[in-house]
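Hey, sorry to bother you again with one of my protein questions. A protein chain has come my way and I'm curious about its shape. I'm sending you its amino acid sequence along with the backbone structure tokens. I owe you a coffee for this, so here goes:
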Amino acid sequence: MRVSGEVRIGEGAAFATRATAPITNAPWPFLIIVAASALGGFLAVALGVFLGRKGIIPQAFVPLAILIAWVLSFRISIRLSRAFNVRNFRRTLLARGIPDPVATVFEVTADCFICRSEGVEYRAEWRAITDLLRVGPYWVAIAQALPLMVPRRFFADQTAEQLFIGAMVERLGPAARARSGHALRFLEAA
């Protein structure tokens, strides 16, 4: 069984980070976000104090205004950082001759899960896959902490998607199947 389509360089970067976060527990990819949000927090405090002193908002609401401004600055910094990183990632790989988009094929076999694109092939034996989950517009198979991301848009319809995910789930070991609640619920909804 196969699905295929094109994957853009870096398109699943944000979802890969979320998918592997329970395994890696590493905040390092977000250092830029933390620095930007710290700057946003400073600006939020300055804005809250300014609005309170000018009488634009009551003094009692200054802490709430600061919190709201900081949360907004944090969300903006995440989006800007992600866009900046993906753009630079694409530009660097294009300069090195990597095509964008890349034709990609995902295949479920009796022995392994295969992800194949131009010049690259990942083969993960079923015992190496620890989780199968849906993150945003992707199905993510975690193979020894490596996220293999299948875009849901590759499937012609929900039936094709359920057949493919069902074929994967039936080959997972019991522990991996138990951790793959997204996939199990998706199949039950059929």
Observations:
- The chain has a mean pLDDT of 86.
- The radius of gyration is 21 Å.
- Strands lie at 2-7, 102-108, 112-117, 120-125, 129-135, 138-143, 146-151.
- The helical segments are 13-24, 31-53, 62-95, 158-171, 174-179, 181-188.
